[in-house]
Design goal:
Radius of gyration of chain B: 25 Å
Oligomer: heterotrimer
Number of strands of chain C: 0
Largest interface: B-C, 39 and 33 residues
CATH superfamily of chain B: SGNH hydrolase
Number of domains of chain B: 1
Mean pLDDT of chain C: 89
CATH architecture of chain B: 3-Layer(aba) Sandwich
Largest sheet of chain C: none
Low-confidence stretches of chain C: none
Helix content of chain B: 40-55%
Low-confidence stretches of chain B: 1-12, 55-60, 176-181
Number of strands of chain B: 5
CATH topology of chain B: Rossmann fold
CATH class of chain B: Alpha Beta
Chains: A mainly alpha, B alpha/beta, C mainly alpha
């Protein structure tokens, strides 16, 4: 799966959680409190299922979730 | 970026930076100079207003200072210092009725030794007491801890800039003047009764010595010196209090008094002789005395002061208002003591 | 030695600044550490050994964990031992007597139960704060997000930097550790801005919080004498006192650190503008919230158990149930911890559960909220609705703080009951407020002071850089404002004879 495909898939998941946000342009999803902690929990479990990775407490930092691009990077890193 | 004050880069500091630093220093100096002047100015103002106020109730424990300043100059022969134990044991107008000796209690609640020293300074500006009677409870007030240092720090600041002491004056603005606060030359009237409970261990024989802190004993010797310089005789006394006194404290004070050659009178040891009734003579369970308790103590102190050959002013026309004052005081005190005696034991 | 006291502001802090500045840059970290340990010693004397023990232990454990990097199970064991040890000490020091009391109550019914006597344990200053920092650091190293620190001074300073000793802010390693040892020289900007922030903190504490103290004491001590509106006033006054006190002292703390060029994490972001209880907790005591989220909430939510439930519930019961289930699982430890962290009292535990329920309800009601918005056309940006939500959050806050301050849980519940015994607005109109030891002039000062704080907070909320704008103005303007601030404190501060000294509230936790 290319990174672009991955980003599309992540977008789908995000839109499923809350479709009122323009995820493509947001780069401070966490810092600006756009995603609250409960949305992040749902997100994490969906990402784990979709990409077959294990996201642990150690990965729960703002810079992994601030944008769709960063989420894709984190997943790529975890898949290694 | 070069960090201006970093030791390693000091040599490379440019001229502009140096100039910037200098002007920042100068600015700070000007800022603090103006602040200092404003503090002096406001202090002078507040001090004046405070001294001229007729209503002192809002100033709470500072009241006594202003009341003291309002006493006729050079009329007081016995000045009493101390914390709340002083103005609940020594009753100047009772002493007056029994002996004609003029006295004044310049005690404050929770007075510290350094505050007592300040109080003495203030008194000596306008008065020339022959005897300074100091209640000893404050000798054991905390001074070595930070809080002690803090209190004496505040005290010094307040002497330098009275605005810190009188800063509460604004509270009186726009309020109607209230003259009902009567001051019986510093004595505080109390008619409540609360039994002291079990007093079996009060002043129980004990040879241990509870030392007075070095700070407090140093201040005591300063006070002694000040009294000596002013021609007054310093005397220590401990008012009866089951809560505050015990034998080890007595030993500590007695030892200190002996070292500094100051006469010491411990009325706790004379509680029986005075006829203290620990079920009725205190209004808060042995911490402070009510009017009935202080009556007994002041009787004793009157007799004691008489032995010091202090002048009797009762016939002196300059003191005529003392007689009037004493009459109204007596009325109140009589009523209070009657009430206390009627109180059932609690 | 509280941060609002003269001995700190006029002796300790200036002495630290001067010694720091005259010392060559690379030794400055030692100066900071020496003063930090001195501060601790002055507050707690020999109990400093708790701090020293924690520091050495954490320092060595982190290095050991780093060394066994490859052996995951040993690393886990070390980390678990460290966290257990740290919390063990905290529990021992703060909770032993609470457990003894509970045991005695449980055993009282049984015959043959011998009452366990209470033990006397002295609590070192700030142990609740530095323990959390130490645990955070260990977890960061365990997760591999931070390297184990080789410099002992850095670890020691991270745990003991003197402005933070008494009441936080609770820093994460990445927030402060590096800055503390940089040894930058003092600059006039930092000194100026730092001292102005200290003055602002003193303003909040001395004018408003300490003045309100008399009334708050009266209201909570004699709570059985009040009902209706007056009981409501108890909650409002205490919430106001606590905000002015805690945020004021944090201003003094952050200002002190700023004088050294060190930026500590903020602890408040205008909490009274929050629209929901959860937002309030992102703006009030922020560093405790961040700590709980980073080191408690995320580990719980990403744990296998939670994930398994989530997957299971999503399949069987749908997303909504899964979501509120996970929310409950994640919130429970966080809020029990938050309550207990404040101390071993039932009303603190109740306070934690109170917010646990409210925050959970917030999640449960999300669909209702959505439906409501769709039907009415309201949105959270609608001015009226926005204000309504803020007011609703205030009621939640005031009620919570009433339980928090009450003299025990029973008193808290009694006060809550009294809230509904008639409105009794007349008690306020007929001078009930003047019976609390405060006179009209006191209230005037409180109202005007609060108004000043409100205006400043509102500007910050609107992202107007107030102080920066003032500094850029002509000197006459900025200096006048600072002089006004100083004289406001000198004249209207509740200090000196006639006022009861108020100890720092959060230093007690």
């Amino acid at each position: 799966m290319t990174k672009e495909d991955m980003k599309k898939e992540i977008m789908n998941i995000l839109n499923d959680i809350d479709d009122s946000i323009d995820y493509a342009s947001e780069e401070h999803l966490i810092d600006d409190h756009i995603l609250d902690s409960f949305m992040i929990i749902s997100l994490v479990s969906e990402l784990e299922d979709a990409f077959d990775v294990r996201i642990s407490a150690a990965d729960m930092i703002a810079s992994n979730f601030n944008s769709v691009d960063e989420m894709a990077d984190m997943i790529l890193h975890l898949q290694k | 970026m070069i960090d201006m004050a970093d030791g390693n880069t000091l040599g490379t500091e440019s001229r502009a930076e140096k100039r910037g630093k200098k002007s920042a220093g100068r600015q700070a100096a000007v800022f603090f100079l103006i602040l200092f002047l404003m503090l002096c100015l406001s202090s002078a103002l507040f001090y004046r207003v405070a001294a001229s106020m007729t209503d002192s109730a809002y100033m709470k424990r500072n009241t006594i200072k202003t009341v003291l300043l309002r006493e006729e100059p050079y009329t007081i022969d016995v000045l009493v210092l101390g914390d709340s134990e002083s103005y609940t044991t020594f009753s100047p107008l009772q002493v007056w009725m029994g002996s004609g000796i003029s006295s004044f209690v310049a005690g404050q609640s929770a007075q510290t030794m350094s505050e007592a020293r300040t109080m003495l300074d203030i008194a000596l500006e306008h008065q020339k007491p022959k005897v300074v009677l100091m209640e000893t409870n404050m000798l054991y007030r905390d001074t070595v801890s930070l809080k002690g240092i803090q209190d004496s720090f505040y005290e010094r600041a307040a002497v330098l800039f009275p605005v810190f002491r009188y800063h509460n004056l604004w509270k009186a603005l726009g309020q109607k003047v209230n003259n009902d606060g009567e001051y019986w030359k510093g004595y505080e009237v109390h008619k409540g009764v609360k039994s002291c409970g079990n007093t079996d261990h009060y002043m129980e024989a004990d040879s241990t010595v509870k030392q007075v802190s070095s700070v407090n004993s140093r201040i005591l010797s300063e006070i002694r010196q000040k009294c000596e310089d002013a021609g007054a005789k310093l005397i220590l006394y401990s008012g009866p209090s089951t809560v505050n006194y015990s034998m080890d404290k007595h030993n500590g004070i007695a030892q200190l008094a002996k070292e500094q050659n100051i006469p010491y009178l411990d009325l706790n040891l004379k509680a029986k002789e005075l006829g203290m009734d620990w079920n009725r003579d205190s209004f808060d369970g042995g911490d402070h005395l009510n009017d009935a308790g202080s009556w007994k103590v002041s009787m004793y102190l009157t007799r004691y002061l008489k032995t010091l050959h202090l002048p009797d002013h009762r016939e002196d026309p300059a003191y005529s208002d003392w007689n009037d004052n004493a009459q109204s005081f007596l009325k109140i005190i009589r009523a209070n003591i009657m009430e206390i005696q009627k109180t059932k034991q609690t | 030695m509280g941060y609002n006291e003269l001995s700190y502001l006029l002796l300790f802090l200036p002495a630290a600044l001067i010694v720091y500045q005259v010392t060559p840059a690379r030794y400055r970290k030692f100066v900071l550490l020496a003063f930090s340990w001195l501060y601790f010693f002055l507050c707690s004397r020999l109990l400093i050994f708790y701090l020293l023990g924690t520091t050495v232990g954490v320092y060595l454990l982190a290095i050991a964990m780093y060394r066994v990097q490859e052996a995951a199970s040993r690393k886990k064991l070390l980390c678990a031992a460290g966290v257990a040890g740290l919390f063990g000490v905290l529990l021992y020091v703060k909770y032993t007597n609470f457990f003894i009391r509970v045991l005695n109550q449980l055993g009282a019914g049984n015959s043959g139960w011998q009452e366990i006597p209470a033990v006397k344990i002295l609590v070192p200053i700030g142990i609740s704060y530095y323990t959390l920092e130490a645990v955070g650091y260990l977890l960061e190293v365990y997760w591999g997000r931070q390297k184990a620190e080789r410099s002992f001074v850095r670890v020691a300073l991270f745990l003991s930097f003197f402005p933070q000793t008494m009441e936080g802010p609770i820093a994460r390693w990445q927030d402060t550790a590096m800055q503390l040892t940089e040894g930058h020289g003092l600059t006039s900007e930092n000194l100026r801005d730092g001292s102005v922030r200290i003055l602002w903190g003193l303003f909040k504490k001395m004018l408003i919080a300490d003045r309100l103290n008399t009334a708050v004491n009266a209201l909570f001590t004699n709570y059985t004498q009040y009902q209706g509106a007056m009981t409501a006033v108890s909650g409002i006054f205490y919430a106001l006192q606590l905000y002015m006190e805690f945020s004021g002292v944090v201003d003094i703390i952050l200002g002190s650190a700023q004088m050294f060029g060190i930026r500590l994490p903020e602890n408040f972001r205008q909490p009274f503008f929050s629209q929901t209880a959860s937002e309030f907790w992102r703006r009030w005591h922020i560093t405790l919230g961040v700590w709980c989220k980073t080191y408690l909430f995320y580990p719980v939510t990403t744990s296998r158990l939670t994930m398994r439930w989530n997957r299971f519930a999503r399949k069987k019961c749908g997303k909504y149930v899964a979501r509120i289930g996970v929310t409950a699982i994640a919130l429970t430890p966080v809020w029990l911890f938050n309550g207990l962290w404040h101390g071993p009292q039932w009303n603190y535990i109740f306070y934690g559960i109170y917010y646990l329920v409210l925050l959970w309800l917030e999640e449960v009601l999300v669909p209702v909220k959505k439906a409501f918005y769709e039907k009415t056309g309201f949105s959270s940006s609608h001015t009226f609705w926005h204000l309504f939500r803020i007011l609703r959050t205030w009621i939640i806050i005031f009620t919570g703080e009433m339980f928090f301050r009450a003299a025990g849980l029973r008193a808290g519940l009694e006060m809550f009951r009294r809230l509904f015994q008639g409105v009794h607005l007349s008690a306020i109109r007929e001078g009930g407020l003047l019976q609390l030891g405060l006179d009209r002039m006191d209230y005037r000062v409180i109202v005007l002071g609060t108004a000043a704080v409100f205006v400043y907070d509102l500007m910050k909320e609107r992202k107007v850089p107030v102080w920066e704008a003032i500094v850029q103005k002509r000197k006459a303007v900025s200096w006048t404002l600072v002089y006004c601030l100083i004289f406001a404190i000198v004249l209207f501060g509740a200090y000196g004879p006639g006022y009861q000294k108020v100890d720092l509230i959060y230093a007690g936790f």
